[in-house]
Amino acid sequence: MLRVIRDLLKYDGRFRFAFVFLLAVLILAISSAISPYDPGRTFKVPADQPPSLQYPFGTNSRGQDMLWWMAFALRNSLFLGLMTAVVSRVIAIFVGLTAGYRGGFVDRALMSINDSFIVMPVLPVLILLSFLLRGRMSLVMLALILGLFGWPWDARLIRAQALSLKERAFTRTAVYSGTGSLKITLNEHLPFVLPVVFATTVANMLWSIGMEVTLSVLGLSNVELPTIGTAIFWANQHQALVAGIWWWLAAPVVVAIVLFLGLYLLFSSVNEYIDPRTRLRLMGG
Amino acid sequence: MALLNVENLRAYYRTEMYGISRTVRAVDGISLELQRNEIYGVAGESSCGKTTLIKVIAGAIKPPLKVEEGRVHYQFGEFDVDMLRISPDDLRSNVRWKEISYVMQGSMSVLNPVRRVITTFEDVVATHQGYTDKAAFLAQTREHVRKLGLPPDVLNLYPHQLSGGMRQRVAIALATVFHPSLIIADEPTTALDVVVQRGVLQMLKDIQAESGNTVLLVTHDLAVHANVADRVAVMYAGRLVEEAPTQLIFHAPRHPYTQHLIHSLPMIGDKSPRASLGGRPPSLANPPAGCRFHPRCPHVLDRCRAEAPEMLRLAGGQRVACHLITEGVR
Amino acid sequence: MRNFVLRYLIPRLGQWVMVIFLGVTLTFIIPRLSPNDPVERQVSQIMMSGANINPEAVAHLREALTEMYGLKGSSFQQYLAYWGRLLRADLGPSLSTFPTPVTQLIARAMPWTLGVLLTAVLISWILGNLFGGLASYYPKNPFIRVIDVLSQAVRPIPYYVMSLVMLIMFAYVIRIFPFSGAYPPGTRVQFSLPFVLTVLKHSALPALSLVVVGMGGWFLGMKSLTSNIISEDYVVYAETAGLRENKILFQYVMRNALLPQITGLAMQLGTIFSGALIMEVVFGYPGMGMLTLQAVMANDYSLIMGIAIFSIIGVATSVLILDLIYPLFDPRVRYQ
Is the ipTM above a cut-off of 0.85? Predict the structure, then answer.
């Protein structure tokens, strides 16, 4: 595993970028533990200070140091992303494997529902949901809700994997030799399914953090909680751009870009490394 | 005068990724001659380098494939072609499809799925010859296709509406549009059932008989060679091990590998069990030293492990590369 | 023909019905799961704003609201009534701009969203696919290289972040484009040339932010698709047959690669739509996105519901339209 990381670091520029980006993001997020300020408090520092050595990200109109605020924001956003990923993984694996293994009517029914979720624009529904839960929305709650909507794409991929595994010779052998189906799933098939799960996790994280920002910008989440989205929300509320306080908007944007780019580059470089077909294609000349 | 002269051809695949480089010696020192008006068969197991050989002969050399050494020289009636040095434009205007054409392996899927069959004919003719009168071209094509025994309506259909055998025959019709001097057929009968196979092979034989051109037929199926080929060459791990007129190679094979291949063919009435050869074909990235067949050869000599045998010319137009012959053992 | 209708048409229509059914049911269930009773909320809101309202009027209001919200009767009756109203295109009145019907508000905002969305999607899809196809044949071309790197950099960035970046860059730092809106406040909406030009100028940034991210995505997708298709038998055959590069690229490779891209577009419409919504909020563009924001700010429950339902039906129908266009491009579906 470490060898894989070392290889990727040496040969793939994208992975190097991803590594640096994500490291920076993690450091910032973890540093929230030693923040001198409570993100819930306002007017702790002079307001509207442009970025300087003392305040690397500047301060906003509410008198908060943007650097430390973003540290908390990152931590929360990452937490949200991971939680959503876990919840939707569980659902996706369940749906995907069941549909793949059972086949027939169960499969068609599940996939029909699945495709409906893919086609349906999730945002309006989420807006409705958040609107009604306003004021009671905690981060965990949001993660749960997002998880309930984020599984269909991945469920399809897992199902495809299950379908191909079902037909493989070693599965038949295991079945004929009397191995219980649960054991087959866990012991034989999981090593094939897990890479798909991992690959989709990062994509899912990107999606969920994105959704959180969208909902927060509309003011539909808990705006007291620092996240990347609420940063933008508050900046909009205080007309940051008009007032010339561009760093209030720039900070979450830059952080978001670094985070997203890092996750995405990680995802695509690891994916290419794992998939033998792309490796072969890259070798040609 | 030989149509094609291949001398000492070496063609390798070189790949480099994540710091690991590999060289696959797909064709490692092959020399042969193709005569006019003959069907020349190339036999061998999968991944013995047959397809690479054809690629080089047809001039389809793209990275990571690289010709390391050798000569590939054609003598078409009026002009000569050095395949390794010809320019792509020259290749396209004068040689491709007019002198050399190709019937691919798995011809089920050589036709563009989203366009009608006739459009492929249009594309091919337009590229190499051009046509001014569309109606005349259509009539000509329909006639060509009909002469080959295909219903002319086939041209208006989409590929997925045709059966596999039908598509294969359309591919052959495409290959013969300009009546080329050399038709290269790569596994034309694989994945077809026997009845259809017969139709395809008959079509090839008829075409060859009528135009007197050369057909290079590559397949692992020895039965096909027995049926159709005038001469057969046997390839193993990137090298030729034996070459002889069909009758000779089936009745008196000299190389142990060929002998094994011939003897493992089922024969009606013969119920004796067939012996299987131990081991597997070697990896072309890491071939054995000396004679490539020596790890599996039942009559291996010490010399075979160290030294690769040269092609020896025997009576009746037979060539063999085996130390057992040179040593006079067999 | 019958085969086509059975195997393709009916399942697609079925999917359309399923999405709408599921979506509408969701919008029906969700409010009823919430602990917040919208009627009570509304009543308390009004009671808090007004000074003296006699209890009889309040009871009357409560009754009217319950009826309006469709909360009368058992759940099943409500459900049927819900569908009934929908089929009559009645989404109820907006609460913040009582009694303007929700449908009217949506009708006013929808053309703006549709305009920018349609243009942006068309441009980004066509250009992205075109360049993506070219990229597989001319990968060393410097222009293509630039697009490639940019696309990869931009790909993971969600629409709104891109919108924000564009806003900061082009409306603030380099002041080419206006800040917000589709026209300066106070301008009358009319079909005159100066108005149209102003609209174009204001719409440029919003559209651009959608196009930039979108095009990157299509470019990368097409590039990867065509790289796979290049090794397909029929392409190798065309090359062996000596056909010219241009011909192979367009007639053999791209024509086949476009098929999954059409399907991909259908699958992504939901996401693109959501992206457009948020882009409008960032830019203050007077489409469905801004309408949503206003609705949220004003606690206009029925407007939000209406927008949700309309979005679901709109996107599902667009997907259906794409699904119906697809057979025109793929003969394998036309002739089974």
Answer: no
